[in-house]
Amino acid sequence: MKLHASLRELTRVGRALHRRGKKYYLHLRKTTTNNDPLRSQRWRRNLLFVAILAAFFAFLVFFVEGLSISWDEAHYRSLGRCFSEHLLDPEACLPDFLESDLLSHGVATEVLYFLALDWAGVEESYFALHVVKGIGSSLVLVALFWILCRLHPNSLLAAWGALLLVLFPTWFGHAFDNHMDSVSCLLYALELALAVYLLEKSYQSVQLRTEVLSIAGLAAISAISFSHRIVLVIVPALCLGLLIARSLRQRRYVEIARSLALFGVIFFATLFLVDPMVRLRGLEGVIAKITYSSDFEALAGSMNRFEGQLWPSEDLPWHYLPKWILITTPVVTLLLAGIGLVEMLRRQRFPGRGLSSDLGFLISMSFILPIFAVILLRPVLYDAWRHFLFLAVPLVVIATLGLKKGFEVANKPWSKRALTLAIALPFAVTAKEMVELHPYQYLYFNRAAGGLEQAAANYETDYWAKSYREAAEWLRVQPREDDQRTYYVYVCGPEISAAHFFPPGRLVATPRSEMADYLICFTRENLHLQVAETQTLHAVERQGVRLSVVKAIPQLGPWDSLSEDDEIHFISKPGRVRGHVDVVTARGSEGDALALKGWAAEKAEPDRPLTILITLDGEIVSFGRNGLSRSDVAGALGDDRYQHSGWIVAVDGAAAGVNGDSLRVWGYLPERGEAYIIRR
Q1: How does pLDDT run across 174-210, given as a tens digit for each residue?
Q2: Which strand ranges, in their side-by-side order, compose the sheet holding 569-571?
Q3: Average pLDDT, rounded, for the chain
Q4: Which residues, in sequence order, are bridge partners of residue 615?
Q5: Which of 100, 436, 535, 613 is the most buried (most CB within 10 A)?
């Protein structure tokens, strides 16, 4: 009876929804007839944008789990976790992080990420982080669409502008797993949207409450932007300048003072709340952040491949940023942006003399000023133009204006169709290249630069080391000589980008290349050439360009393997070896691997590689060696030779039992034939 009642209730609800849907559909048909073409066009514009947004979310749903880990994600996850736990006591996190971490970037977005997950009851992970980043990037599309709707209210251009951003490979390649720069895009887009709204309202008679809320919102976003990356405050500075210019012309001095006072109070109050450095050092912290942003000493001296040469980050050519934008933006987008920028500047009048003039000045300067600031101030830069990825937002807005101008010139039906085809075909090619580059769309170079294949020799390619996931997943499925032992992998640069995808206990990252069985390296600064080319086992490539390699490192000594003929004398006291078994972790149910962790070293030569044996009832069931970083052990013992005494060894859970209580751990000296017990 309950089932029948439920079915009847569902049927009733379904019929009600059907009636409402039919009524809404008839209403739409009535309001989108030829008698009201502008309303009809707005409806098609909104529908097209919804389709674009749905496609973006479809990518997020189906592909985000397969994305890589960018090399700074682990660091900023740790930063966010600590400060979310110590919101009111930022000093508690200072021992774990460098001052440069807080001077170069704030922690507002990282803290919000953890607070949002705690509120939603979702377990924190890289997958969750990428989903949040993808949702944030979808808001960039929404903000861009809203801005274009204000600039072109009665046309489809707003939706086409959103499509231009989706087909911007450099932006799309950073949208889901770039921890810092995708957030910069979101903040810049929100600032632009609020600035456009404020300028519109300044030409209307609005209530004081609306004005106050608008300025307060812009001030709060500006404070978060300042904390995150100082250059982002160019937009609110432009907006305030335009508002002041208009008020001065109308001699509304009280409004100027009120707006500036409100903005200043909200800005500094928000900055004090969200930025630990400002909270700890006050005004001195604000000044320190401003001066440090131009120097950025932390990465001074790092090398960048540009125009076929390696340049230090603090001494790059003046045209480094503009050229990267020119060679990595689709050619059609560049042409449209050029037309739009010329048209915008041609119509430009003195700011404050008209809404259209003010909006044109805001959009054009939000793109031009950051580039000129880089050319004049010459800050430390690296990794192409990802630090200025937020410029993609005003660039697309300007390109949309160029698209509008093109359709105005092509005023005949046949010429409009020809123009549409001339624009659509190159973008179809761009979309095809984005599919070929997946999931590394940020490697894109346009045809003017010769594409990725020709540009790779002269410019940076996989600076994020995202190809490490593909390399690690290839290595993990390869058969090895001894499935019982643990193999060590030396990862060039960002270890987390590869090690996160290693099978627990079977492949272990080591910071010492001389102790590794395998090497995973990207081609940045030719790091992949550390081991002879003949040792290459696998290469990750896109469009014929090598991004990273997996190599076998020749065996270095008798500790690398065990022979069945070895006679081992097991000694049940530490003797010549010292160490400890710290953790035995079960990796699932019976039949899965256990991971044993600890530290061990030979007393006479602690910095020498040491073989670790695992036995069960006197039989060796697994082995590996030390070599992992254990700075805590070196500090406790007061001897830096113990820096790499850590080890992890995997054991078959079916053989040992899930908890591993019956296992014994030994430090083996092959040249003596002796194995010494390592206590738990």
Answers
A1: 999 888 899 999 999 999 999 999 988 888 776 667 7
A2: 569-571, 674-677, 663-669, 611-616, 619-625
A3: 83
A4: 620, 664
A5: 613
pLDDT at 1: 45
Phi-psi region of 268 (alpha: psi -120 to 50; beta: other; left: phi over 0): alpha
Confidence class for position 10, pLDDT limits 50, 70, 90:
very low
| Residue type, position 96, single letter | D
Structure tokens at 614: 């695992």
Is residue 610 within 8 A of residue 675, CB to CB? The reply is no
pLDDT attached to residue 121: 83
| Confidence band of 530 (pLDDT split at 50, 70, 90) | low
Verify cis geometry, omega within 30 degrees of 0, for the bond prior to 351: no
Between 166-175, 311-320, 588-597, the lowest mean confidence (pLDDT) is in: 588-597
The DSSP output letter for 628 is B
Nearest to 513 by CA among 597, 607, 599, 627: 627
Task: Sort strands 487-491 and 309-312 into parallel, antiparallel or unpaired.
Answer: unpaired
User: To 10 degrees, the CA torsion angle through 27, 31, 32, 38?
Assistant: -150
CA 66, CA 59: separation in Å to the nearest integer? Answer: 11
pLDDT tens by residue, 170-179: 999 999 988 8
pTM score of the predicted model? 0.81
Please list, residue by residue across 506-527, b when 16 or more beta carbons sit within 10 angstroms of its beta carbon and e when fewer do.
Answer: bbbbbebbebbbbbbbbbbbee
Question: CB within 8 A of 560, min separation 6: which ones?
Answer: 517, 625
- Give the tokens for residue 280: 């700890």
Q: How far apart are CA 243 and CA 54, in angstroms?
A: 37
- The more confidently predicted of residues 249 and 31 is 249
- C-alpha angle 491/530/556, rounded to 5°? 80
Reading phi first (left if > 0) and then psi (alpha if -120 to 50, else beta), residue 627 is in left
Under DSSP, the state recorded for 211 is H
- 9 by Cβ neighbours in 10 Å (0-12 / 13-18 / 19+) ranks as exposed
Paired tokens of 249: 């012309």
Backbone angles phi, psi at 260, to 5 degrees: -65, -40
Intra-chain end-to-end CA distance of the chain, in Å: 62
**φ, ψ for residue 69, nearest 5 deg:** -115, 115
pLDDT at 254 over 70: yes
Three-state DSSP state, 43: helix
State the Cα–Cα distance between residues 206 and 213, nearest whole angstrom: 11
Phi, psi at 596, each rounded to 5°:
-100, 135
